[in-house]
Amino acid sequence: MSAKFISIEGITRRFHAPDGGTTTVFEDIWFAIARGEFVCMIGHSGCGKTTVLNILSGLDLPDDGAAIVDGKAIEGPSLDRAVIFQSHALLPWRTVLGNVAYAISSRWPRWSRSQVEEQARRFIEKVGLKGAEAKKPAQLSGGMKQRVGIARALSIEPKILLMDEPFSALDALTRGTLQDEVRRICLETGQTVFMITHDVDEAIYLADKIVLMTNGPEAMVAEIVENPLPKERDRNQIHRHPAFYAIRNHLIDFLVSRSKTFKSEIPADYDRRKPPVIVPQNQPQPLPPSHEAGRKVA
Amino acid sequence: MRQTSLRLRAGIVSLTILLIFGLAWHIGVSGTGPAQQMDPEYAKLMGQTAVQGKSAMPGPLDVLAKIWSHLKEPFYDRGPNDKGIGIQLAYSIGRVLLGYGLAMLVALPLGFLIGMSPLMARALDPFIQIMKPVSPLAWMPLALYTIKDSSISSIFVIFICSLWPMLINTAFGVSSVRKEWLNVARTLEVGPFRRAFTVILPAAAPTIVTGMRISIGIAWLVIVAAEMLVGGTGIGYFVWNEWNNLSITNVITSILVIGLVGMILDQALARVARAVSFPE
Ligand SMILES: Nc1ncnc2c1ncn2[C@@H]1O[C@H](COP(=O)(O)OP(=O)(O)OP(=O)(O)O)[C@@H](O)[C@H]1O
Ligand SMILES: [Mg+2]
Hints:
The complex is a heterodimer of chains A (about 300) and B (about 280). Chain A is built from 8 helices and 11 strands. Chain A has about 300 residues and is an alpha/beta fold. With about 280 residues, chain B is mainly α. Chain B has helices at about 1-30, 40-45, 50, 60-70, 85-115, 120-130, 140-145, 150-175, 180-185, 190-230, 235-245, 250-275. The interface of A and B includes residues 58, 102 and 103 of A. Adenosine-5'-triphosphate binds near residues 46 and 51 of chain A.
């Protein structure tokens, strides 16, 4: 039961072009997320990652199949699933406190003002924004805005956290800090997370499982990579782990070549309902760190 | 520092322009032309202008004196044709605020509806497109015929002319609220009523207030013309009446006062606009 807290069952999404044609973004996709798991999705631009996330959030509905959470099909947005938008989507006429409080008072309409404010301050402090409560989003840096988005999502204590490339617009240093913070908070609370990313290293650092999407249109889940690294990770030490380059090379290899060719050479035993689960193991000859260091695939 | 010095310099330039203009005006009207010989009866009718060759155009000092006399006693009431300028202004402002307020009551909810519903936007578009370019004064005969009250008719004309900018801007502002803000509300399961007041209204407020500001400007332009047309009371009627009395001093005074009130109305809405604006 707990192995399938979230279950994506055969979802298909098509868009109708104004000239009458239809594009199938992806077709018959299956995968599952267990309670407390941190799952990342990787794939090239336009393969439909955001569309999958929108279906999970309830902002969009699949044309076929269903996304099931806790045994119930998703039919619309829910406070149980908080979204961290790529564009942070803060309400610019509200202060930092006001933005977080808006979410909290939506979650618990009966709470008193002081209760709402107390909870908001608690989460603003958690993401390291203490002192900026009265600022408007326009007065914040990109990293600070993203933190407010994170505080807003976490403050409603959702069962599931959905993140769409939350750190992609940030500089490397801020990105690292925020990754650490999100990881710490999610570990503390056993948060179930689904996150889209373009950054292979980010996925390795954060994820328990990584879902690989082939290129669109008609994208599919090629495989699910299980992270061989232990749950306790230190960002400065993980590259010393024997399996680090195995998983890293596997992911980069997928993005560079197999995401294009996978569909034309589908393995005979491939089953859409159960995409193969791969656990990359240490290779005899890891590439030197300088070779691929910092490589990101856009 | 730079800011204040610029303001100061601009103020000095403004003052200089005013003084030069006043002086030119004063000199321009103070010369006397040749006096004409005429029948004393006729001369009496024509007044000093014709007899002494004095210009009929009042000078700036005459106007200042007139303004002072109005200021001393703005609210006197000596019958239908002789009321203080303050009373006339109060009538006009009252009509404008009434018509404008009614237009707001209609335009804001209707604009919300049009902005939220593509169907209503399309359905109402032809009516709006045809009604919008009509001069509000063209409604006056219809209003007088159906309402049969000149004062209410001018309120109606103000209503009509204030309606369109507010309606169009509200609809536009509401329909162009950023999708991501609406999505935030959706993911937080915010109900339609709360969403209207906590997301759509604040997001659209700057556009709505811009429409309201255009409306109040048009309303103040139109009320003068409307009151000239229907007569009775109001600053428009006052101007026309003083023209009939050949009191150019009063006409000039009214022009200044109309400008002043228009500016105050506009500034009031500019203040509202600043209050609802938000930087992104
Ligand atoms: N509302 C829409 N109408 C039509 N086509 C759409 C719509 N939304 C998305 N698409 C199409 O669906 C495909 C997948 O879009 P999606 O935003 O999910 O990609 P993505 O994987 O998130 O890309 P990126 O990494 O660039 O964010 C794209 O080809 C896009 O053109
Ligand atoms: Mg995307």
